[in-house]
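Build the 3D complex.
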Amino acid sequence: MADHAAKLVSEDGVVVLHCPPELVREKLVNHDRSLNWITEKVSVICEEKTRPWWWIAFFIFSPIALLVPLLLGYQVSNGVGVWGENQPFGWAWDITNFVFWIGIGHAGTLISAILFLTRQKWRTSINRASEAMTLFAVMCAGLYPGFHVGRVWKAWYLFPIPNWNGLWQNYRSPLLWDVFAVSTYFTVSVLFWYVGLIPDLAMLRDRAKSKLKQWGYGLAALGWRGGNRHWQHYEMAYLILAGLSTPLVLSVHSIVSFDFATSIVPGWHTTIFPPYFVAGAVFGGFAMVLTLMLPARLLYPQLDDMMTRNHVDKMAKIILLTGSIVGYAYLMELFIAMVYSGHFYEYNAFYNRATGWYAWHYFAMMFCNVITPQIFWFKAMRRNYIVVFIACQFVNAGMWYERFVIIGTTLAQDFLPSSWGHYTPSWVEVLTFVGTFGFFITAFLLFMRFLPMVCAFEVKAVTPQADPHHDPKGHDHEQPKEAALSAH
Amino acid sequence: MPQIFPRSSNFVPLQIAIVLGVLTAGALGAFWYYWTPKYTRVGYQPAQPIPFSHKVHAGQLGLDCRYCHSFVETAAHSNIPTAQVCMSCHSQVQKDNPKLEPLRKAWATGEPVQWVQVHKTPDHAYFNHSVHVNRGVSCVSCHGRVDQMDVVYHAESHAMKFCLDCHRAPESGLRPLDKVTDLGWTATPKGKESAQQAQLDLGNELKKRRDVNPPVNNCAGCHR
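Done.
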């Protein structure tokens, strides 16, 4: 190492710091693209004529999205009984899907807040799209508990509003904490996303040709001029919002896990739940980010230089890490219940999980969430888009199975065999879930079309040109494996 | 580049904030006032087939409530009197009054007088008259001064809060059992005590003595 780290002075008086090739960071923007190139390639997505594939996708997914209002309308007019759940299965697909969607949101917040605070510069090209994904996922999630209450017009009882019923919320209930956690999460995520959008909206406004676009983007840009003071305030606001969002990454899913963990039902009553849920949420969320990102890259090839294989590689590593935490949690849960606790009902709950009516869900979950991500130990796999995409689909499915296993197997067989019961989803539940995917993808299509899906100004900030030490005549263009420092 | 928006648009956010603030406050105020049972129920006074005056019967003549609503001490439901109860007097008194025609018809045919219900407990709430009356909750607590009404109207909101206010503090309404149907009765203050304090003192004592323990935290107490 010593000879590598030695300082050398080249002929023209520049100190060259040699770095072993395996430690050189890959560039975040390939092919040394100029700042203007980035502006052009990001803006053109919103400015060009709508492409045929977009219309095709839109006309496929928006009718599917319409299933959501139709079937929720059907549920409201006929009562919650059109869903297949009943005693003892009081929570079924609805809460499964709620946890599934809310978990997906966590990747966006982690990318935008935690990776921002930890100065992970590779987040810049993917944070906008992942935050948008977070918002759409939280919207999908929010409708489930809202309509699960049965009389949705009474859903405002969830909030502490003075009322003529003389009722007040039960602050000891994790279901109420859930209301606050999710609504706070949504509000902060919207603010964070929108604040981050403002400079890019101003970019689109300044480039807009038509009056309508000028007005539309102009209104949304809130008069951003890019002055020094604007940037100072912006940076501070963004930092504060990142600070506010960071605890939310951990708190929201912890509180969701309390919905289960604070009950006394075997299989739910475990202290391992909060970290296990949070890891699972990040795990599933990154899989969903990649599920949306990889096709987007394919459809907009100009984004290739900004969302590189390096980005996909890093996200796959996070999937591997969180997937392994989840796998550890599964095994530890099993160990605690079956071996360590010596608790008859806990033992049975897990015995039933693995061998009972829903055993195939359990093994699907184990395979998808524990085995699949292990392929990401190999760099070649992490950098193969097709492999990553397929693995992510396994993770998406596996995380859904996880939630169903936790909720379903536990409720199906609790203490008393006389109160055991099966559950089959009704067609209404199935199609509502399909509809939420339609909504999710439709919303993402609209987002891609009308808003800059890459945070152009942040990507510019991680190019070599943006570095104050950057020497345009320096060696880093010809010799990318050496970082050059000016001697004077 | 020319400016897209005129200079005045700098004030648009402020204007929006003011307008939204006023609209929100107005909407909340309107909702608070017009959409709560205090407004929607209180004062409901439907026209009855016979303009029966409680003021005359219960007030001036001094009939006890239980003379007509005879099951109130023994049943969950407080009954409306049959034509026979009315006719026990009106076969002699005012027997040709044209206003009593529906009553005479009911008496002759056996078809009850079609009184319009004023106080209606929703199906999802269970209310038992006898349990309240027998613990010393007066009629006046929920129905107001019926003995002063010409035609009965809804005097109190009967919102859930209305029930709970009393369930949470039953001492505010408990009284001696022989005063339950005495709608004008108030507790007698001792010394310089206020009338309100007199009621609370008496109520607390009665609550203790009668072991009054109404459902408060148990939804299934009323929503069975």
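The interface with chain A takes residues 1, 4-5, 10, 36-38, 157, 159-165, 168 of chain B (CB under 8 Å).
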